[in-house]
Design brief:
Number of strands: 0
Number of helices: 3
Low-confidence stretches: none
Structural class: mainly alpha
Mean pLDDT: 77
Length: 96
Amino acid sequence: MRSASRLVIVALSVFVLALPALPAAASTVVFEQQPPSTAPANPDDTAPAGPSLEPADTEAEQSEQQRKIVLGVASVVLVGIVVWGRSVRRKRAKAK
């Protein structure tokens, strides 16, 4: 069945194209912006709080993310092989 092989090719290509975007999306930092104050500054006031930064990923979290990516890629490849094998088997059965 041609549509199954096309589906696998499209799914794998989408996954491969999205893979480089994952680290870039994970490393974005969200800054909370506060509107500028129009009131005059008092000498007794403290400085406004800076941007809130998320804590950096630890080595354990990074290795866990890598493991999940590897398992995801492996599962997509295995599903692709199964779909492709079934379509080949179906074609051989029709030919007989």
